[in-house]
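1st attempt posting a full record on here, be nice pls
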Amino acid sequence: MRARIWISLVATFAAVSTARATAQSADSTAAVVPDSAAVSSPPTAPKPAPSKTTYLVPELEGAGYRVSRGPERFAHRISFSPAYGALGDNELFAFRVGYSPNTWLGYEASLGHNPAEGLHALLHTFNVLLRYPLPGRFQPYATLGYGMMTVYPGRALNADAVTKNALTFGGGLELYIRDDVSVRGEMRGASVIGQELNQESAVVYDYREYTIGFAFYRNLGS
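the predicted structure (as tokens):
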């Protein structure tokens, strides 16, 4: 009889212990795994709209108005440069196309139109540009070239023209807005070699050319 009572007590105690252990395990699991409804992820910021700006140098997208400090930015690039100014006492419209094979040397073809009252002239030259790259936005350079000046009497292009040899020399200064855009000011001397009527000796006519404009660059890679 006593044995049966002890067996019943042991079985009851074991059942109560198992129920308590199961309840504690469920509570710990609930504490470790939070309710998914109670945890919320932070809101995702909207993605900026893609830029519609087309960059002459795609690598500069997002670079703002910064300029590179190394001289490598001057090498292996082409340039397009419209300009306005004066040749002598009359206005001048110019357009230039150039190529730089390295950091200090450049080649440039230039075409300028000089309309005047009694006549107008076309000055087309091939120039060599020499520069010493500096850190920062301001870049000076020197230029030397040879070409032709064609003078038309009156304003008609079909009038009989007179063509003379021309030597140009001078220098300029660029202010870089970005690596691919600069404001360019330049001053050149143009010596036109001609000949007086009924004379065999050559005569040199000296002119001063002043221009300001923009220069747009495109890097061709290394």
